[in-house]
Design goal:
- Helix content is 0%, strand content 72%.
- The chain is an all-beta fold.
- The protein has one domain.
- The N and C termini lie far apart (82 Å).
- Mean pLDDT is 79; it is low at 1-10.
Length: 130
């Protein structure tokens, strides 16, 4: 007869469910809502959390006619941010105040239909395309 021993392991199970809803409103604004439902089972205890992520996409136009796609994202664990895409260039800036986004010397201020970007002392003004 032998003795068998076993160590009790701590078991954690995480289950994530992501629901994504994409809509375009009457103004042509593309909007993506994501709801992340997370269930954690830690040693028999179930915890549920819900995180709603919202994305709004707009097209902005500069005075010279060039266009940029701008996505405002809210509700992420990392905070709110803005993503500016023009050609193959992508700039992601975290929100530091209500209408101000800034990182690595690049600053964007969103006021109504205007987006002002400051980089290396240069100011670029864009207006939301309607």
């Amino acid at each position: 007869m032998g003795i068998i021993s076993c160590d009790k392991e701590s078991k954690t199970a995480i289950e994530k469910e992501v629901k994504v809803i994409k809509t375009i409103d009457a103004n042509g604004v593309s909007k993506t809502d994501s709801v992340i439902l997370e269930k954690t089972n830690l040693e028999g205890k179930i915890t549920k959390t819900e995180n709603k992520i919202e994305k709004k996409e707009y097209v902005y136009r500069a005075f010279d006619g060039t266009e940029a796609k701008v996505t405002f994202t809210t509700g992420t664990k990392e905070g709110n941010f803005i993503l500016i895409e023009r050609n193959k260039l992508k700039i992601e800036l975290p929100q530091i105040e209500s209408d101000i986004y800034e990182k690595d010397g690049i600053k964007a201020i969103s006021k109504g239909d205007l987006l002002t970007i400051t980089q290396n002392g240069q100011i670029f003004e864009l207006s939301r395309k309607k």
